[in-house]
Amino acid sequence: MTAASEKIVTPANGCIGILGGGQLGRMLAVAASNLGLKTCILAPEKNSPAFDVAAFSICADYDDGDALSAFAQAADVVTYEFENVPVDTVVSLEARGALVMPGARALAAAQDRLIEKQFIESLGAEVAPYHAVETLEDLETGLSRIGAPAILKTRRLGYDGKGQTRIKSPGGHGPDALSNTWEAAKQKAWEEIGARPSILEGFIDFSCEISIIGARGQDGQIALYDAAENHHENGILRRSAAPASAPTDSIAAAQDITAKLLSTLEYVGVVGVEFFVKKDGDVIVNEFAPRVHNSGHWTLDACPTSQFEQHIRAVAGWPLGSPERALDAQMLNILGEEATGWEGRDLEPGARLHLYGKSEVKAGRKMGHLTKVGQRKA
Ligand code: AMP
């Protein structure tokens, strides 16, 4: 049954508006195009990678009223490719009659680490011990409650390990010199994150990190992909492998939490939920992204329906595709200078190269990814 807020986008009528023009927007636009649907990208950066592959693009700030009107007019439904799109932009688009999916509630929860943690706890899922920090005194209280090592993270606008700093254990209470060092460490951490509203998180001694990519359609249908096992370097995802080596029960628990999150938010589209798997097998939710996710790129080469096609199907009101994994896959991010020279290089069998067409190379910047696929073993 189609509710009043639902909309079917077809190749005959169809244009999907995407807020954000990075690699995720680019891969979404390609997936839409494969289904015969056009996309319109709105992004403020002139050289946005998604502009190259979309039917229409608008280069403007997210608070540019004229641009938002033109965008709302062009798009039958609107979605976004990154979670830091201002909630006000979504509200302005809705006021202009646009149907935005996933909705503003998911966006607002994912933008603020404190609201996110409270929401996840309301699902009955576990999060790392945390303490809200507004002042240096709060940080001290948090550290005495949670202990060290711990991680101080800004509540808003953090990504790829940015906006966070680790606080190491002082090694016990000792002579003045040691406590002075400890005081200095707290002060330094507070300054490093810009003395902004933050949360202090207990450091989890996990056995591995996994993520679940899930999707919910306009009709409430849910599809969950196999878990990926993720390895980070300097807070940036380096590689993801599917299947994950985590215990089956841990993966099932992570999938249950993802499904609950999707249905509680009446979410439409793809979500990426990141988990720590503890040594006893219990799972802790780290965070969720209300969008397609880097740890789901392997689905492009190993599943009948990639996360990008799945997201387009969901927001366009189509039935979801099969999330089944046909192959074993390992995805490696291509960062910074690693993106150069591929035009002269042979690929090994089973390797698939994806470059994002970014003109400016910066250290640690996600420039592309390589997926290695092989026959499914488990
Ligand atoms: P985040 O930006 O919060 O996803 O953090 C990036 C990465 O830092 C995570 O994927 C983990 O590898 C690590 N990390 C973040 N929070 C914690 C934590 N509370 N305990 C242990 N490692 C963490």
Q: Which features characterize this protein?
A:
378 residues; 4-stranded parallel β-sheet; alpha+beta; binds adenosine monophosphate; globular; 9-stranded antiparallel β-sheet; single chain
> From the helix content, strand content and strand pairing, which structural class follows?
alpha+beta
Query: What overall geometry do the principal axes of the alpha carbons give?
Result: globular
Question: Major beta sheet, specifics?
Answer: 9 strands, antiparallel
- List the secondary-structure elements in sequence, H or E: EHEEHEHHHEHEEHEEEEEHEEHHEEE
Mean of all residue-level pLDDT scores: 93
* Associated small molecules: adenosine monophosphate
Question: Which band does the percent of strand residues land in?
Answer: 25-35%
Question: How many strands appear in the DSSP assignment?
Answer: 17
Identify low-pLDDT runs: 172-176
Helix content: 25-40%
What's the tally of helices? 10
State the separation between the terminal residues, measured CA to CA. Answer: 37 Å
**How big is the Rg?**
21 Å
What does this structure look like?
By secondary structure, the protein is α+β, with helices and mostly antiparallel strands. It contains ten helices and 17 strands. Strands 9, 10, 11, 12, 13, 14, 15, 16 and 17 form a nine-stranded antiparallel sheet that branches. β13 (269-278) and β14 (283-289) form a beta hairpin. It is globular, with a radius of gyration of 21 Å. Residues 172-176 have low confidence and may be disordered. Adenosine monophosphate is lined by residues 128, 151, 158, 161, 201, 203-204, 209, 232, 235, 274, 286-287.
